Amino acid sequence: MSAEILKRACEGDRDAFSALIETHYDFIHAVAWRWSGVASDAEDIAQEVCIRLARAIRGFRGNSSLRTWLYTMTLNAVRDHQRQAARRSREEKRLANDPLYSSPPPEHDGSGDDALWAAVRTLPEKQRDAVLLVYAEGLSHAAAADVIGCSEKTVSWNLHEARKRLKDLLRKEAV
């Protein structure tokens, strides 16, 4: 994508913004899917990022790369989506215990994630983000640090801790 299209999009040019979305949508969706692990959630998250991008594009100053900015925006949308899902789940459990609203639990579709990535998604947020950025996205520790907003050493430490935790998790799962 050319710097000119980005500049025009930042200035409010709708055609340039459409080109920007078209160029980066697959990237946004892929990141959302890797973080959420659910295709339908990834679609919702990607759509939310596009909406947020439309509102925020005029504020992009180029202090980081557009890709870093999109990572950050997508990760924030994933976290927001996960918080909303947790709130919905708590509310559903509360209502399930209420005799006026109780109904059978929804059926699961039976689709399973790869055990490793499913285990990664159970890690604490900072460890999970470091693992996904470095190993799933292929970013360097420095680039991951830019996206997360921490030091490169913090990314390395989170990866170290994540490896230990994943080793234990996967060992327990294998037993």
UniProtKB/TrEMBL annotation:
Residue span, RNA polymerase sigma factor 70 region 4 type domain: 114-166
Keywords: DNA-binding, Sigma factor, Transcription, Transcription regulation
CDD domains named among the record's database cross-references: Sigma70_r4 (cd06171)
GO molecular function annotation: DNA binding; sigma factor activity
InterPro entries: RNA_pol_sigma-70-like, RNA_pol_sigma-70_dom, RNA_pol_sigma70_r2, RNA_pol_sigma70_r4_t2, RNA_pol_sigma_r2, RNA_pol_sigma_r3/r4-like, WH-like_DNA-bd_sf
Segments traversing the membrane: none
Location of region: Disordered: 82-113
Domain RNA polymerase sigma-70 region: 20-88
Matches recorded under SUPFAM superfamilies: Sigma2 domain of RNA polymerase sigma factors, Sigma3 and sigma4 domains of RNA polymerase sigma factors
Any single GO BP term: DNA-templated transcription initiation
Membership in a protein family: Belongs to the sigma-70 factor family. ECF subfamily.
Protein name: RNA polymerase sigma-70 factor (ECF subfamily)
Organism of derivation: Aliirhizobium cellulosilyticum
